[in-house]
Structure formats: C-alpha cells, structure tokens
Amino acid sequence: MRPPDLISRNALAWIIAAQVLLLLPHMFRLPLWIVLLYGAAFFWRLQIYRGRWAVPNRWLKLFLILASMTGIAWSYGSVIGLEPTVALLLVAFALKLLESVARKDGYVVIFLGFFICITEFLFSQDLLVVIYSAVVVWVLTTGLIALHRSAAIDDTGPMRLAAVMLLQALPLMLVLFFLFPRIGPMWNVPIKTQAAKTGVSDMLRPGDISSLAQSSDVAFRASFAGEVPPVSSLYWRGLVMSRIEEGAWRTVSYFDIPPSERRVPPVEKIGESLDYSVIIEPTQQQFLYGLRYAEPRQSGILQLPDFRLLNPVVLEQEFRYRVRSWPAVVLGRDISSWRRRLETQLPEGSNPRTRALAERLYRDTENDAEYVLRVLALFRQQPFRYTLQPPLLDNNSMDQFLLETRAGFCEHYAYAFAVLMRAVGVPARVVSGYQGGEINPVNGTVIVHQFDAHAWNEVWLEDRGWVRVDPTAAVSPARIEFGLENAMEEEGSFLSSSLLSPLRYRGISWINALRLRYDAVTYQWQSWVVGFDGQQQVDVLRGVFGRINAQLFIGVTLASFGAMLGLVAASLFLRRRYAQPRDPALQHIRLLQARLSRSGFDLRPGEGPGAMGRRAADRFPDAADELHAIAHIADAALYRPLGPEQRRKLQRSLRHHVRRLRLRASR
Amino acid sequence: MLIAAINYENNMSYALTFLLATLFVVAVLHTYANLSGLTLQGSTGGSGFPGDALLFSVRLMGGGQSRYALRLRWRDRSLGGGEVQQDVPVNAIIEVQLYARALQRGRFLPGRLLIESSYPLGLLRCWTWVDLGLSGIVYPTPQRHPDVQQSADPGQRGRWRPLPGEDEFFGLRAYRKGDRPRQVYWKGLARGQSLQSKQYSTYATEDDWLDWDSYPGVAAEQRLSYLCYQCLQLHARRQQYGLRLPGLRLNPSTGAAHRDRVLTALALQGSTPE
Predict the structure, then answer these.
(1) Which residues contact B176 (CB under 8 A, 6 or more apart)?
(2) How far is CA A658 from CA A172, A297, A615, A631, B117, in A?
(3) What is the CATH number of domain B34-138?
(4) Which residue from B minimizes the CA distance to A167?
(5) What ipTM does the predicted assembly reach?
(6) Element at A448 (helix H, strand E)
(7) Do B89 and A169 touch (CB under 8 A)?
(8) Whole-prediction pTM
(9) Does residue A468 sit in the same domain as residue A610?
(10) Which of A165-169, A627-631, B208-212 is least confident?
C-alpha cells in the first residue's frame, strides 16, 4: 500500500480523541469490560502505530468479535434491545480501530462515530449532552479532514476548517430541521429494556411514594397559556387505582373493563378552562399527567374511562403534549353498577379492625359527605404524624397504621381513607400523581419534581360525582400549601440522600437564581428543539407564511439553500481574487512583465527577475542600460538580506526605474 | 441515520442527520474551491528508449490559497506511472514528477492529465482533464548490426591520446589531493617511493561518422536502431562522432549534450518537423 493511503498520525490522533469522547457519556451504561476493551484497543492501536505490535490476524479478529458478542449477550441477558445494540456498536467501534490502517477504514470508523453520536441522543437530549455532542461532531469532522491532509503543512488547519464547514452547514441544517416533515415511526424499534422506570408507578404500596420523595429529578414542566393557578390546587392526576391486590393499589387494566364501560363518560364542560402544555421527562411508562378534567389538544393521546390520559407508546424520551382542563366540571355524575361494585371492593377478611372503625363512624351519619368529613376529622384529631420515614407495616397494614403506628406518608393516608370508605360501601379510589410544583419566575413554567409525587383520593358522592379528597391535607396542611420541603422542615429528611442536588442549596440565592435560569433554558430547549413536532411545525409555518403546501416547503428550502450556499461560495472564491502579492517589489516586477509581454517579449516560467531583465536587455538594446539596472535592483530587492529601511529604498528605486523605462521593439 | 431519527422520533438525531447532509453540500463547494484557481504548467518532457518510463514534470501553483491532497495521473492508464499525491501551500510552486511508459520511437505525447481531489471530506471528488501539451522524445531501440564485429577493439582503429579515462594504464604522476584510493600506487609507497597516483587514459580515434547511408538496403527503422547503437558505443568510448541523415548533418563532437542531440535527431527522423 502506498503511504498516502494510510491513516496519518494526525488523523489517528483525532480519531482516537473522538472515540474517547464518544465513549464517555455511555460509560456508566456499559459493563466495565467494554470500557476495558476500549482501553486495550487504544493501547494496541498505539503499539501498531509505533510498529511494536502487529495488526491482529483474521482468526484473532473473528475470536474477538465472537467473544464480544457473547459477552454482550451475557451482560445484558439478550442482544435485542437498545442498550445491547448500542453496546455492540461501541464494541465494533473499538475493534474496528484495531484493523484500521488504510484510509478507507478511517472512513468507516468516523461514520460509525457519527452514528454512535446519534445513539447517545436516544438516551438523552439534554442541552448539555447536545453541546457535548457538538464538540464530538467537530472532532470527528476534524478527523475526517485530517485523513486527507498531510500533517506537514499545519496541524490546526483541519480543526479550523472543520469548524468553518460545520458553521456553514449549521444554518442549512436549521432550515431542514424546521421544514422536514415529521412523519411517524415506520416500524417498531428496539426499546430500552434496561432503563429503570421512573416516577410514579402503576402500582401503589405503602412506602412507594416516600422513596420517590427523596429524588430531586424533574418529572415534568408545564407552561400555562394564562395565569398559573394557585400551587395548592395543582393536583396532577396520573393514575387512578381502583383495585387492591396483595396489599397494593393497582389500576384496572383496559381489558378487564367490560366493553360498555370503555368509553369516557360524557362530561358537561362548565366553568373556566385552562390551556397548558406539558413536557414530560422520559418515564418508560405510558401515562400522562393532567389537571382534572383534562382533554388532550392533540391527536394520538387516549382518554380512559377514569378520566386519565394515556400515551399509546412508552415514553422513552422527553415528550410534549398539550392539554385543556376544566377544573370545575362534575366527573361521572352517574355511576354504573359495574363501577360501583369495582370501586367498593375490598379483599375478603382484610383489616377487620379498620372495617369495625368505619362502621362505627358511619352509623349515625346522614349522608356520605358527612362521613367523609368525619373521617378527615379523625385524621386531624388523632395524633397522626406525616413523615418520610414511616414504620414498616405487616399484612393487615391499615389496622396497624390507623390504630397503632399512626405515622405515614401520603400513600398511607390515601390507602387508609379509601379502605375506610369502601368498608361502608362508599365508592372510593386512590389517585396518584404529583401535587404542586415550583413556579420558575424566569419564564413562568411550573417545574414538578419527583419529590412532588403524591397520592390522594376520589370519592363518589350523590349529585357531585367523583370528588377529590386529600387526607394528607388534613394531617399536614403545609404539604399542600407550601410543599414537601416545608412540611418536612422539623424532620429534616427532605432530600437528605441527594447531597449534590442544586435544589438542596436553594437557600443560597445565586445558586437558586442560576438553577432557575438553567431550568428556563432547558424548558425553551425542550419545547423548541427536543419537543419540536409536526403540530408545532404546522403552527410555525402557518404563522410565518399564512398557508402551507408542498410547493412552499420546497420553495423555502431551495431558496434558503441557494442563499446560504451563495454566501459560502462567495466567501470561498472572492477571498482568493483579492489576494495580492504582498511584496511591493513583486508588484513592480509583475507590471514590468506585463509591459514586456505586450512588447512581444516571451516570458519564461520560473525565470527570476534578474535573468529576465538581462535577457530583455538583449532583446531591447535601446533600453539595455535601464533593463540591466532593473535586473540588478530587482534581484537585490527580492533576494538580498537587507534591513527594512534599505529594502524600502530599493523598492522605491525599482518603481522609479520601471516607470521610466521606455521599450521600443528593435530589429 | 434518518431512519433512526424517524423511527425514534428523536429530534436531535434529525438535527445531526441534517447537519451531516448539509455538511456534504458545503463540502461540494470546498472541494471545488480546492481545485479551482490552481495553475498547472507542464515543462519539457523527458526522453528515453522504447519501454523506458519517461519523466515529465508539472508545476503546480496554488496562488493565495493552500491546496491539499491533489492527485495527478495520466488519463490513459496504460501509460502507467500511477498516481501522485501532492499538497500545495500558499503562494508556493510545487513541481510534481510523473512517469509515462513510451513504446514507439518518435515524439511521445502522453495526452491529457487527470487532476483530482476529494479533499476535505473524501466524500466527493472534483476532477478535471488538462492538456498541458506535454511531449517527450523516444529514441530508436539500439541494435547492433550483425556484420559489424565487436568494433570496440580500440587498438586497431584509434591512436593513443592521453585523455583522462579509465580504460588503460598510462603512467604515474605525483599524488594530488582528491585522487581516489584505488588510483594510488600503493606498491610504490610500500617500496618507499613518494605517494604516486596511477593514471589511466582512454584513446581517441579519428572522427567517426554515423551515416544513414552506411546500411544500404535496410529498412528505415532498422537503420535508425543501428545508428543509435553506434552512437551509444561511441559515446561510451568518448569518441568524437558526427551524424549524417537525409536532410540533416550534425558536426562531430563529444559529450552528453551531443549524444542527446544525435539521439533526438534519430528519434525524430522521418516525423514532421515542428
């Protein structure tokens, strides 16, 4: 192979740098052995470069590939799914480096690198990740350029050119990004099998939410079209749980609902409505959060008969949805016998003392509403404690909680309340989701964190339908009014396990200001870039052009491409036209050459001005003296080592002589 | 990548895919600019015998811009010579040398030159065919005439003239600085004489003429081959020789320049003068 076809040292360095940068964000998702394999591959490649070790032969390569595949299958339990696929790509990426000697292998490595860059986005599209990836793309492009350039000329050249080219490509990319039609997925793709589900789960057991309350991660951000309602009224319904099984509240599966009950019961929309859009962080689950009663403002989101929202596919990435809510409506004025049976069911023989308590309280009430108030009064009057560290409970957990420990988090109260209702035949269920949120003063969005997770109840009352009751509010009003941090002030348990969370330090004003500002940027990023979808595309285009059709799409694309490429071309080609020789002496000689050539003197390429002048002196005897003088001065001005002052003098003299020269063709 | 972006509905993947696509578009301009405005200048071509690779040099002038990874080769791949890759820095003049295999006596025209570049990304190739008017000279194949015996026997035809050479021992002289060790008369030194150098000489003969008419009845190409052989022989012996061809006469002389003149005349014999 000829030397120009090998990967140069410069290019190799860039490729390795890019590989390291590409590995870093994936590092914590990968088994340790892949990271070690990377290290080994780099070391081996360096040894190949230094001529110490050989390129692995075919059998060793085959062995390495098979061993890595086995390793991945063993580490992940399967080779199907997003994580094993990405791991496989990364391993291929590392091993490809080993056999990359020729330039064409360099292409493969670099394009694989771009692809791996995309896989990172499948895990996170955070602003910081994107900025980081931009750097990686820059390094990869630099590597691609360095592959075609001998390092001898200049070493920073590829870097600068890559930056220039990427910046020139950027505006065009934005045009395509905003104009390219967003069509839905064409087929099912491997999903993240390994990622943990985050946030509220579709099953509620005492202790579930209190463990979630330790997390300061953002669950979702909501931005309201109008004024943000008071925080204490923000009950984000996520899941409605109507069944108790094995001591846990669960949702009713769609297929357990008889067909006649599957439709959303009709709702009379009265009162004011709230328009808002939510950008939810990936949860690996399907349900969406909304204030009651929420209707989606975009297609593709399902409404379930218990008035909650469901996305047809699992949320693997940030997802934006638009909702309209009517907080004042009556939900489910009529209750079917099937639903009444469902919402009053309790496991046989469980919690006998709770049932007895419920019957005693219910005995002399006039209606269900009064009973609800009585139960809430019980929570208020008895020494119940709201705590993030509740004691563990046994099988008849509610008996134990209500009559013995009396210490629990919101899910304990919601659970107990629902059991107390159902024990006397009042339809009741548990709702889980988030309550409250933090209003960002920078942009007015509501940031809902994981520690805002909450569970409350809905009770069905005659003529009033499903009414929200929050027993936690009875025990700890501060939780609802001011949030969890305030409610846990005495206990000191708020975010006690996440020392690094900026939320812990919101007492320090500049950290808090910075945190809120970054959150506002993140929201803009998510809503305009990450969450940009077909709906938004249509809105923007209609806003700008007033109408939408295919010709417009193509026209705008072509026009913007033409304009931008024109600018790039102008910068590339005009720059050169104006490049002049900088040495004044050279300019005078050019002038002389032009005059000589007009007078019929043939110029010889590569001839120095001295030799040319002497030759011209033979050709033009009349001006011989002058030409000899010019030859002498020109040689001196160009080549003799002189101080700047003397050189300028010679240049002036040269100009003088060239101007005075009169050529007359003789012979 | 676009498929991944569509299927995962991942906007950043869209963005990166489009960025690469537009990078490709921008690269079109950069690749073109890398070649555009480049000045090529062919200088005189080389000369040689049929089957030799003739040397051609081409000057590249980039002007106020650096050019990278320019590749040059003959359009006609049968000429061989492979490919030359060259960078041209700002305001530099770079000379690139290309070889072409010539087969036939006469003026050799290698034809158009391909100059191409896929810099900066290697995804696109920008190329052009340039005709630099390059030409080379191919001499006749040297062939010994079967009737001419090993005319290399100098004793019969020449007379001694002390011309510096290496053929025959001529005498001794005092050692001069710069004489080669082989030349030093070591035996004399061993015998206690002063340091002396051996002198060799070659001999010059009467002027020889390479004459078209000395091979009557032989085909023209064959005659030229015989003359070519003679010329080389005479040159190797440092003899003076002249050339007589129909319509051309070169006076006797010696030296490489004279030999080249003679060979060129033989090469171009019969072709239309330019």
Answers:
(1) B197
(2) 51, 82, 16, 10, 41
(3) 2.60.40.10
(4) B23
(5) 0.70
(6) strand A446-449
(7) no
(8) 0.70
(9) no
(10) B208-212
